[in-house]
Amino acid sequence: MFNLDLRKLAMSAVAASALMAGGASAQEACTNYTVTDGDTLSTIAIAAYGTSNYQPIFNANRNVISNPTELKPGLVLALPCDDGSLPNGQSAQELIAAEEARNANNKVSNVYEPPIKIVTGGNYAPFADESLTGGGFLVRLASTALNRAGNNRDYSVSFVNDWSAHLETLLPLGAFDVSLAWYIPDCSNRDYEWSAETEKRCTQFDSTVSVYDTVIGFYTLPDSDYAKARSFEDFKGARLCRMEGWFTHDLEEKGVFEPHVTMIQPVSAQECMDAVLTGVADIASFEVQLAADAMSDMGLTPKDIVENPFVNTVAGLRFVTHRTNPYGRQYMAMLNAGLNEMRESGEWYAIISDTLREHNEKLMAASN
């Protein structure tokens, strides 16, 4: 679904924009970079890779970045290599092979336990797609987690492209045990009025820890007052575009919902970007990697549309089970244990970067 080729956008116009922003002229892929005053993740990505998509940098430095808008001077960031590996480290393939060898002799229980039935949707590359190794990185993370941290469970994976059916029928009826993957709000936060969708996700489902944190950006015209907004309070009164059927709990948590804003909900990210260009919307909001893809497909640069550097949200994709499943919480605990071990060993990042490398190679081959 997302084009994550770090070098797809042309360097000239965007590099000039980065230089004007200050501090981002010396970054290079496959090196460690020390943040200086004026840097943002976007300007660093533009200088190092020629694209405003900084999600790969965020992935590689998740242990030291909690808020993408708050980079402190002196912070050292690992800028991934073109193949996704980290500077001065093992390649993703080497690390994955080492972890597989280390866990090859996990003991199998003598007690029969039925395979865990996993469902996801296809055509969602690099997250979930049958054409990618292991079915995409969400499937690889789930299947690997079930064989880490002392787990040794069989599983089956099915692709059902009707995503709404996962939560509406397939999990509630017990056709599947676990669905990959969903944005789940912070269900401990009752300080705002939950929408019906937030209520459902928080009361009918159990979920794992966040499997993959995505940065959600807010995009405007360069000369818009909203480009200079310093808080979500400054967005009130705006016409905000996010695609139909997409989650909005991050907006609800920040008080950015109707009637405080006017929501515009077309089908595609490109339509949201076009709405900003034509003045139908003031702000478009979705994943930074999807925004970079949409801008590239539309031939846009930061001279046309810019990301607000002060305001964004981070949303976590999680594996979920329905609360009527008698073994659901056991499965969530198993997956959590495996995922936590994978993060500590580096296998979590290796699987993601290896899948992104494969996905990029397929995209480049298709464009030639």
Automatic annotation (TrEMBL):
PROSITE patterns listed in its UniProt record: LYSM
Alphabetical list of InterPro entries matching this protein: LysM, LysM_dom_sf, Solute-binding_3/MltF_N
Residues annotated as domain LysM: 31-79
Keywords for this protein: Signal
Tagged with keyword Signal: yes
Family annotation (Gene3D superfamilies): LysM domain, Periplasmic binding protein-like II
Highest taxon of source: Bacteria
Pfam families named among the record's database cross-references: LysM (PF01476)
Signal peptide: 1-26
Designated name of the protein: Transporter substrate-binding domain-containing protein
